[in-house]
Amino acid sequence: MKRILLPLLLLLAHLGFAKIWTPSIISDNMVLQQQSTVTIWGWTTSTGETLTITGSWNNEGVTAKAHQGVWSAQLQTPTAGGPFTLTIEGHEKLLISNVLIGEVWIASGQSNMQWTPNMGLDNSEEEIQNSNYPEIRFFQVPQRKSSSPQDDTPGEWSASSPETMQNFSSVAYFFGRKLHKNLSVPVGLISSNWGGTPVEVWIPEALIQKDKELAHAAKQLSEFEWWPKNPAETYNAMIHPLVNYNIAGAIWYQGESNRVNAHSYYKSFPLLISSWRELWQKDFPFYFAQIAPFTYEKDKKDIKAAVVRDAQLQTMLSVPQTGMAVTNDIGNLTDIHPTNKQEVGRRLALWALAKTYGVKDVTFSGPVYRSMEIKKNKIVLSFDHAADGITAKGKTLNEFYVAGADKQFHLAKAKIQGNTIVVSSSQVKKPVAVRFAFYDKALPNLFNSAGLPASAFRTDDWDISLD
Fold this sequence. Notes:
By secondary structure, the chain is an alpha+beta fold. The protein has eleven helices and 24 strands. Strands 2, 4, 5, 7, 8, 9, 10, 11, 12, 13 and 14 form an eleven-stranded mixed beta sheet that branches. Strands 15-16-21-20 form a four-stranded antiparallel beta sheet, with no helix packed on it. β18 (400-403) and β19 (409-411) form a beta hairpin.
């Protein structure tokens, strides 16, 4: 849009059509981030025009002077409330109505974030019927790609209702619904996702190309006619247009398509997060779903998806203000789109409630491996987020493997002792490493007292061959 904006303005001015307009996301029914500085921006065909932007929450006008047809102003927002109006006045007057002040989140990723109630959802008929929430608002970014960063995207804000919710991201809706109910504030949800997309298409191309490993990994991506695969294509068209819109944070569900270059996900996923934060110039919270078990390869303990899960775990452990919702108990080995999206949204919301909004007494994570101690022929494992106890859903713990110095893993016996787990195998006299649920189809049964599952993990840092 940048390349065509100036010629368009000149043409409109030549034809005598003086006009003021805003991007699609600045429109009726929008939600603005509460208690913050928000940017209101747009364009005008009147050269050097001075505009006044006023929010009815305080009726204090802020002026903005257009430069080469572009104008912007910063307004201070109050605590959550509304509805309000926003007035933009220059040579003509724009009135944006039914504006709410609340919490704004972006929901992005591939198909499991894109999946709507109409595509498949547990108890979908009842969920759709009960989705009337006038203070939950949706903005759907259409699936588009571009070779250069864009300034605008089509779309419109709408209130949650049976008509709108059934075609909106299920995960985003259930995340937003829990925030709305627990915080009693309006919630704006911006859904920007595309099924099948690898992480590279959501990252600025320059960042991919300047890293040799990531540039090589991007070349390994397969060509598909129904989704983009080139770096930055969706970032340019579906994320960059949102940059000026202040948000509370982002939720993300993606990773399946990066099985083909899983090793690079240790770099590319943290890079996605840092690139978005740099774009917004804000270290906003970023919460994501760990990809669920699925049968990618029949009759084989493939570990490509397990490596992606491990990269996701390491991202949570190393990148500030991130959190991971584990889904290994609510997947479906024969359906890559599990239909229990309610629980995915709820688990992501638990992170936000506890870590972003400071709600007390919220257990937000299942057990996370912390450390190990070798005791003769056994290994004792300790965990975070297990202070109130850990448990097995079933008679015995499963999916634990141990290895000695030969790096050959064998199925292990695992027993809970207090808040620790002791693992051993008769085939490994001198164990040095443990892996838990470290293959694509693993269905582990380790939980904490809050019923949240433990993430797959490994204690070793050995090279993993994916050939």
